[in-house]
Amino acid sequence: MYDFTYHKPTSVADAVALLAADPDAKPISGGHTLLPALKHRLNKPSALIDLSGIAELKGIKREGDAIVIGGMTRHADVATSAEVKAAIPVLAYMATVIGDTQVRNRGTIGGSVANNDPAADYPAAVLGLGATIITSKRRIAADEFFLGMFTTALEEGELLTGVSFPIPEKAGYAKMRNPASRYVMAGALVSKGPMGVRVAINGAGPCVFRQAAMEAALSSNWSADAVAAIKQDADGLNADIHGSAEYRAHLVTVMAKRAVINAG
Amino acid sequence: MRRGQKNWETLMPQVTLTVNGKSHTAEVEGRTLLVELLRETLRLTGTHVGCDTSQCGACVVHIDGESAKACTVLAVAAEGTSVTTIEGLAAADGTLHPMQEAFREYHALQCGFCTPGMVMSAIDLVQKNPQGLSEHEIREGLEGNLCRCTGYHNIVKAIAAAQDVMHGRVSELARAAE
What we know:
The complex is a heterodimer of chains A (about 260) and B (about 180).
Chain A: E1 5-7, H1 12-21, E2 25-28, H2 34-39, E3 47-50, E4 60-63, E5 66-70, H3 75-80, H4 82-87, H5 89-96, H6 101-106, H7 109-115, H8 122-128, E6 132-135, E7 139-141, H9 142-145, E8 146-148, E9 151-152, E10 160-166, E11 170-177, E12 184-193, E13 196-202, E14 209-210, H10 212-220, H11 224-228, H12 245-263
Parallel strand pairs in A: 1-3, 2-3
Antiparallel strand pairs in A: 4-5, 5-10, 6-7, 6-10, 8-9, 11-12, 12-13, 13-14
Chain B: E1 14-19, E2 22-27, H1 34-41, E3 60-63, E4 66-69, E5 82-84, H2 98-105, H3 115-127, H4 135-141, H5 152-166
Helix pairs in contact in B: 2-5, 3-5
Protein name (chain A): Xanthine dehydrogenase family protein subunit M
Pfam family, one (chain A): CO_deh_flav_C
Keywords (chain A): FAD, Flavoprotein, Oxidoreductase
């Protein structure tokens, strides 16, 4: 790992000022993606701005018909939150199946969403529930946020501070993990609620995406059979030593079916 | 400087943390990992580095009571925390922690390399589940720890026995079958 200067601000304003002062600085939250990347020298930030000292970025609260989760809230906190379990159980469930116990004790929702790894879990929840991303300067709808592999609408120096999830009537998540790495090969989050019927697919493509044909089918008939008939186009999906694009396309339908069953 | 070139113009960051109940202050680089601080500065070599990619769990310690992979935590980020390593489990008189005792009784180690991390993860798992864990739940709870000898069977048995002692359901560890 190349060396860097370390900062630990205690407010969002200070963190944003540090980022603005140094274009080569990077924010770090749980570090379970960034530190392994730095060990491989894939990145050479001049400074790391540790967000873990910023109290205002932590916590879960209900605001009207939404659950708002601070960016530095850990997966372990979402998984065990009574508030999340009561209002959006699928989100609490998802947090219990991210990585392993030690990853969940350090990793944060803000880090996962801002990083937008194609095989991450949370982007499926953000897109599939029609959440709103809250940043240091604006609010961004999920549909406008995820732009491509490891790419989001966040601008230079803009900090993701939280995510607001509208409470759905029902929602379910299912994923197929790679048996060795445990990363998502293909996953689906389906929901029905104030944001309409939504189906978000993660793991299968270079970026999380909505499956329009499945959304249309579930809108007229909310059942596993409705999505079972819909084939995902393999064109543009990920293909690697772990599975072909056709295999992932097949998994998309299977995971969507299971997600509908999990949603009840 | 063992690794790379020291930047003499930058002041080395200092970190103060409690390790196994004792306060330590050390000069580190920004990039120094917690596991490097523990092993190389404090000479607590019971915490192992297996994969160095947060997969294998040989480096698991407790930070403020919760298990974490010390190969993926910056030493400076542990400022002000209380860290427990495998060396901090046994009592001053040498009496083993019930989890250590169970690992010994159930022969839950072969080469022993993964053992410190397994024990630390297992204690966190048991402490968070006072209702008791089934064999299946123990196996799932160990997802972040790899045993390259594949000695999982006895590790699971040891944790199942240790949880009864840790939660006070029995006063003595159940003996392993002959």
